[in-house]
Amino acid sequence: MSSQARSPSIPSENTAGNSPNSLFSPIQVCPTRSPQAGNLTGSARKVKDSAADWHNHVQSWNALSSKGMSIINKIANLKLETIFNSTSSADDEEDSVTRNTFSMPEELETWCKALDTVLEGMNKIVKKLEIVTAALKGVRDLEWHRCVGGAEPLFQTWPIEEFYNASEELLAMFNRELELKTTIVQNVAHVQNRETLMFYTSAWLHQPYIDKNADILIQSMVVETGFR
């Protein structure tokens, strides 16, 4: 789409706009957009790229989450087999002391470092999502300046505000989920009971802060911009 400048309405000879005593200035009208297709430019190009970025970054996040899940399962199994089971015959008080003094297997450190690498990758993805959201905010502000309210659909039915709101909502989800995963990574190797270990494992798997609306929002952006 070629970016269209705001076009002022041209008053006719009989309108008050030609009178020196006119109380009103000619208004600027948003030109109606035709459906976007082919090689896009301007705001439409930036928004379509942002929709693709969201889809691709979330795919990368999901791949890292799956990798992290595999590592956490290895950590959990290692702790269950070599730490918790080794003290199963002791009473509760002795068991607690033994767990605190039991030497950690070398493999545990290896898996913890691997999990740190996964978390680092997730941090980078969230930073990229922040950049995408900031870019959409910039387009939103530009469209609002170009057309009061920015209400004209860029593609099919969504005005720019819908894309920005969706991106902002998604970013909030992934930020909260990143905080949870950071807590899990920092603590999973130091868990002293099976229940907490199982809780961390389940929390990583189910990603409670990324709700089902996330997939709807991403797919809506993809469909709206014509990728599907």
TrEMBL record:
<protein>
    <submittedName>
        <fullName>Cyclin-dependent kinase 2-interacting protein</fullName>
    </submittedName>
</protein>
<keyword id="KW-0808">Transferase</keyword>
<dbReference type="GO" id="GO:0016301">
    <property type="term" value="F:kinase activity"/>
</dbReference>
<keyword id="KW-0418">Kinase</keyword>
<feature type="region of interest" description="Disordered">
    <location>
        <begin position="1"/>
        <end position="48"/>
    </location>
</feature>
<dbReference type="InterPro" id="IPR023250">
    <property type="entry name" value="Cyclin-dep_Kinase_2_interact"/>
</dbReference>
<feature type="compositionally biased region" description="Polar residues">
    <location>
        <begin position="1"/>
        <end position="42"/>
    </location>
</feature>
